[in-house]
Design brief:
Elements (H helix, E strand, L loop, with lengths): L1 E3 L2 E3 L10 H8 L18 E4 L2 E4 L12 E3 L15 H8 L9 H14 L5 H7 L10 H19 L1
Parallel strand pairs: 1-5
Antiparallel strand pairs: 1-2, 3-4, 3-5
Helix pairs in contact: 2-5
Length: 158
């Protein structure tokens, strides 16, 4: 079984040796996770595995069985509250996406960063996001959005 976004999904034996990325997109319908380089270098396929950001193209389904996986679709609980995650709100506020292809991976990496460092400095953000590439070069907007979201998250925790 795979726990994806809080739901248990049965994985047929013949699909256990494919990449988690391909399983998520092609078999489980979580298309927010993008195929970028396929070599774990760009961050477009970032998801959370037990709360840690990982490149899903580098893991086989069999490697992550019985773990908790969160995709961009599961980052915010929009079904019960209708609320976006603070990062998603900040992404909109700062008009971060240009082409948008890398944004799900960027947000997932940023969410894991803010879980570890709730009030990061700009240097923390730069270091934490170094594994995510943006062909459009929206890095400054990404950084501003992460710092803004960290303020909202810190306020929520008070």
């Amino acid at each position: 079984m795979l726990n994806i976004n809080g739901k248990e999904i049965e994985v047929p034996a013949n699909l256990r040796e494919i990449s988690l990325l391909i399983f998520l997109r092609e078999f489980a319908g979580f298309t927010g996770t993008k195929y970028g380089c396929g070599a774990g270098l760009c961050g477009a396929c970032m998801v959370h595995l037990d709360g840690e950001a990982i490149t899903s193209c580098q893991y086989l389904v069999s490697d992550v069985m019985d773990h908790r996986i969160t995709t961009i679709e599961g980052l915010a609980d929009t079904t019960s509250t209708g609320d976006l995650h603070p990062l998603q709100k900040a992404w909109i506020e700062f008009s971060v996406p240009q082409c948008g292809y890398c944004q799900a991976g960027q947000i997932m990496t940023a969410a894991a960063l803010l879980d570890k460092i709730p009030k990061p400095s700009l240097d923390d953000v730069r270091a934490g996001m170094a594994g995510n590439l943006c062909r459009c070069g929206t890095y400054k907007r990404i950084q501003k959005a992460i710092l803004k979201a960290s303020e909202e998250i810190s306020d929520e925790r008070k």
